[in-house]
Amino acid sequence: MDIIISDDGPGVPEAQLDEIIKPFYRVSTSRDRDSGGTGLGLAITHEAILSHKGRLKTFINHKGGLSIILSLPIYNIT
Protein backbone atom coordinates (compact mmCIF):
# COMPACT_ATOMS: atom_id res chain seq x y z
CA MET A 1 0.00 0.00 0.00
CA ASP A 2 1.34 3.44 -0.90
CA ILE A 3 0.39 6.68 0.78
CA ILE A 4 1.49 9.85 -1.02
CA ILE A 5 1.71 13.14 0.85
CA SER A 6 2.43 16.28 -1.20
CA ASP A 7 2.51 20.00 -0.64
CA ASP A 8 2.99 23.05 -2.83
CA GLY A 9 5.33 24.89 -0.47
CA PRO A 10 8.87 26.07 -1.17
CA GLY A 11 10.12 22.49 -1.31
CA VAL A 12 13.47 21.07 -0.29
CA PRO A 13 16.70 21.42 -2.24
CA GLU A 14 17.35 18.16 -4.09
CA ALA A 15 20.73 17.76 -2.39
CA GLN A 16 18.96 17.67 0.99
CA LEU A 17 16.24 15.12 0.22
CA ASP A 18 18.14 12.30 1.95
CA GLU A 19 19.02 14.54 4.89
CA ILE A 20 15.47 15.47 5.92
CA ILE A 21 14.80 12.04 7.43
CA LYS A 22 17.74 12.36 9.83
CA PRO A 23 16.93 13.29 13.45
CA PHE A 24 17.05 17.01 14.28
CA TYR A 25 17.71 18.03 10.67
CA ARG A 26 16.04 21.26 9.54
CA VAL A 27 16.19 22.50 5.97
CA SER A 28 15.77 26.18 6.69
CA THR A 29 17.81 28.14 9.18
CA SER A 30 14.66 30.16 9.87
CA ARG A 31 13.03 27.10 11.47
CA ASP A 32 13.97 26.87 15.10
CA ARG A 33 12.29 25.99 18.37
CA ASP A 34 10.67 29.43 18.51
CA SER A 35 9.10 29.16 15.05
CA GLY A 36 8.22 25.48 15.37
CA GLY A 37 9.70 22.14 14.52
CA THR A 38 12.36 20.01 16.15
CA GLY A 39 13.46 18.02 13.12
CA LEU A 40 12.09 14.77 14.52
CA GLY A 41 8.83 14.22 12.62
CA LEU A 42 10.20 12.60 9.47
CA ALA A 43 12.90 10.73 11.42
CA ILE A 44 10.25 9.12 13.65
CA THR A 45 8.02 8.41 10.65
CA HIS A 46 10.92 6.82 8.78
CA GLU A 47 11.77 4.52 11.71
CA ALA A 48 8.11 3.53 12.15
CA ILE A 49 7.79 2.69 8.45
CA LEU A 50 11.03 0.65 8.53
CA SER A 51 9.84 -1.28 11.59
CA HIS A 52 6.88 -2.45 9.51
CA LYS A 53 9.14 -3.50 6.60
CA GLY A 54 8.13 -0.47 4.56
CA ARG A 55 9.90 2.33 2.69
CA LEU A 56 9.83 6.12 2.75
CA LYS A 57 10.82 8.03 -0.38
CA THR A 58 11.12 11.81 -0.73
CA PHE A 59 11.10 13.77 -3.98
CA ILE A 60 10.34 17.17 -5.45
CA ASN A 61 6.88 17.17 -7.01
CA HIS A 62 5.75 18.87 -10.22
CA LYS A 63 4.43 21.88 -8.27
CA GLY A 64 7.88 22.45 -6.76
CA GLY A 65 6.90 21.30 -3.28
CA LEU A 66 7.84 18.17 -1.40
CA SER A 67 6.24 14.77 -1.87
CA ILE A 68 6.71 11.74 0.34
CA ILE A 69 5.68 8.20 -0.51
CA LEU A 70 5.11 5.87 2.42
CA SER A 71 5.09 2.27 1.19
CA LEU A 72 3.89 -0.48 3.50
CA PRO A 73 3.51 -4.17 2.73
CA ILE A 74 0.04 -5.68 2.87
CA TYR A 75 -0.12 -9.08 4.50
CA ASN A 76 -2.86 -11.57 3.77
CA ILE A 77 -3.73 -13.04 7.15
CA THR A 78 -6.20 -15.91 7.01
From TrEMBL:
Q: Which domain of life is it from?
A: Bacteria
Oxidoreductase as a keyword of this entry, yes or no, is no
Q: Pinpoint the Histidine kinase domain residues.
A: 1-76
Keyword Transferase, does the record have it? yes
| Gene Ontology cellular-component annotations | plasma membrane
> Under which EC number(s) is this enzyme classified?
2.7.13.3
Please tell me the species this chain comes from. Paraphotobacterium marinum
Q: Name one Pfam family in it.
A: HATPase_c
- Keywords for this entry? Kinase, Phosphoprotein, Transferase, Two-component regulatory system
Q: Membrane-crossing residues?
A: none
Enzyme class (EC, first level): transferase
Protein name as catalogued? histidine kinase
Instruction: State the reactions this protein catalyses.
Output: ATP + protein L-histidine = ADP + protein N-phospho-L-histidine
What InterPro entries does UniProt report for this protein, alphabetically? BphY/WalK/GraS-like, HATPase_C_sf, HATPase_dom, His_kinase_dom, Sig_transdc_His_kin-like_C
Molecular function terms, GO-annotated: phosphoprotein phosphatase activity; phosphorelay sensor kinase activity
Which processes are annotated in GO (biological process)?
cellular response to phosphate starvation
